[in-house]
Amino acid sequence: LKAVARGMKRWLLVVLILLAFGRGVSGLGAKSLWWDESLSLHRAQQDLPTILSNQINLTDSIQQVITIDNHPPSYFLLLGLDVRILGKSEFALRFLSLIFAVLTVPLLYATARRLIPRGHVAGLAAAALGSLSPMYLWYGQEARMYTMVAFLSLLSFYLYIRAFLESNRSRA
Question: What pLDDT shows up at residue 167?
Fold first, then answer.
């Protein structure tokens, strides 16, 4: 009976992950790029030293303005790889953000399970909130680093829990 319940919980998690992907991929390329997304594309198309320098060279063929982007280059490095493999369509540019949004769903589940003993229900609730959140869907469909930041922040918290809180429990 416990094995059946465990299997059902896993299937429900898979359904939530697929739901997050389905919601995100639906209409992924429908909107035109807006200004910040075009800056993401611009940075992603630069060579490696330029991406790492965080410089953005804006020009209108008459004037040139060099600015410094305050966002770290890791997202733009990955987006540059994405652009080189998938192309420059709106869909291709936003796909990286969708991947991070979808990867956050099982990570929400795992984190809630670690925080709450026997937390399968809490894990599924957290995963459901992540897969159904309209705001998270919005950011999962933008060619910006927001879902990557959320994923990496949650990953660092999850690893902190595993490294420090669980090791303290085992010593007690």
Answer: 67
Q: What are the beta bridge partners of residue 65? A: 58
CB 98 within 8 A of CB 141: yes
45 and 83 Cβ atoms separated by less than 8 Å: yes
- Gap between the Cα atoms of 114 and 161, Å rounded: 7
3-state SS class at 23: helix
Detail the DSSP E strand segments found in 1-130: 55-59, 64-68
Q: DSSP for 109-143, please give it.
A: HHHHHHHSTTTHHHHHHHHHHHHH-HHHHHHHTSS
Query: Above 60 in pLDDT, residue 172?
Result: no
CB 104 within 8 A of CB 147: yes
Angle between helices 90-115 and 2-25 (to 10 degrees): 150
**Predicted confidence (pLDDT) per residue in 105-141, tens digit:** 999 999 999 998 777 899 999 999 999 999 989 999 9
Q: What is the pTM of this model?
A: 0.88
**In 3-state terms, what secondary structure has residue 172?**
coil
